[in-house]
Structures are given as structure tokens and as C-alpha cells.
Write a structure and sequence with these properties.
The protein has one domain: 3-Layer(aba) Sandwich (Alpha/beta knot). It contains five helices and five strands. β1, α1 and β2 form a beta-alpha-beta unit. The protein is α/β, with parallel strands linked by helices. A five-stranded parallel beta sheet has the order 2-1-4-3-5. α1 runs parallel beside α5 and α3 crosses α5. It comes from Psychroserpens burtonensis. Belongs to the RNA methyltransferase RlmH family. Homodimer. One of its GO terms (molecular function) is rRNA (pseudouridine-N3-)-methyltransferase activity.
Length: about 160
């Protein structure tokens, strides 16, 4: 199985990007991992929030395969602790799917078409974080999940 993290917009903080790169490298020891950025939309000043979500949704849906299992990182999604998340990952690995895609949307969330395509929603917290921070948190939690599944000490450091 491959895990893909898909996000809208680049990370412009070099320190944050260095941490993302570090955890992405670590994660590669456990599973095939892909991280793809969909560039920010251009000329959004004339677009409503709904129009932006619709255009981002089209870009997102073009990046997905028909067999992908799509999980939205959404403030209204289910919250899991790290051990629960590791079990969530194991369940998906056991199901025989080819690719599990976690999606971090743009500033206004997801279009109705993306919600319709989704197989589930997860939330990292009731708090609001920047979309750039969520990338780091998500990759770190993926890494943590695999160290839990392998019974490695990282989780309790």
C-alpha cells in the first residue's frame, strides 16, 4: 500500500519544510509515501469562496485514482489518539487497498464533489492550525503510527 498526502499550496517556511522533509524521510523506512502539493490558485480576488473551493476541488479530483481511499483532514472529522490512528492505518493496510490518500484542503475547505468522493474524515484537533503546520503534524503522526505498529520506542520518548 502507498500512503499519499495531498495538500493545496506550498510551504514557504524553510524551517517547517526542513521538519516535513525529515519526517518524510523517516516515514519512507516503513511504507511507500508520496507527498504532493497542488499549487495555489491564481487570480482568486475575483472568485468567491465557493468558486475557489470548486476550482480546488477539480484540481484535487484530477489527482485521484478511481481505487484510491480518500480521507479528508477536516475540522468536523473523527478524532483519534495516536494509538487509535495506528490501528486505523493497520486496518487500511489489511484491507488490501492500493493507495490511501489524506487530503489537506485550501483555506475554505472542500467542494461538495470532494466531500462526495471522500471515504472518511479525520481531525487532528478541535483547535485551528495553519495548513502548513497540519502537513508537519500529519506526517509526524503517520511516522508515529508506524513506530507504534512496530513497537518501537519513539512514541514514548
Amino acid at each position: 500500500m502507498t500512503i499519499k498526502l495531498l495538500a493545496i499550496g506550498k510551504t514557504d517556511n524553510k524551517d517547517l519544510q526542513a521538519l516535513i522533509d525529515d519526517y518524510q524521510k523517516r516515514l519512507g523506512f516503513y511504507i511507500k509515501f508520496e507527498f504532493e502539493i497542488i499549487p495555489d490558485l491564481k487570480k482568486v480576488k475575483n472568485l468567491s469562496e465557493e468558486q475557489q473551493k470548486q476550482k480546488e476541488g477539480e484540481l484535487i479530483l484530477n489527482k485521484l485514482n478511481a481505487t484510491d481511499v480518500l480521507i479528508l483532514m477536516d475540522e468536523n472529522g473523527k478524532q483519534l489518539d495516536s494509538v487509535g490512528f495506528s490501528s486505523y492505518l493497520q486496518k487500511h493496510m489489511n484491507s488490501g487497498i492500493k493507495r490511501l490518500v489524506f487530503l489537506i484542503g485550501g483555506p475554505y475547505g472542500f467542494s461538495p464533489d470532494v466531500y462526495q468522493k471522500a471515504n472518511g474524515k479525520l481531525s487532528l484537533s478541535k483547535m485551528t492550525f495553519s495548513h502548513q503546520m497540519i502537513r508537519l503534524f500529519m506526517i509526524e503522526q503517520l511516522y508515529r503510527g508506524f513506530t507504534i505498529l512496530r513497537n518501537e520506542p519513539y512514541h514514548h520518548r
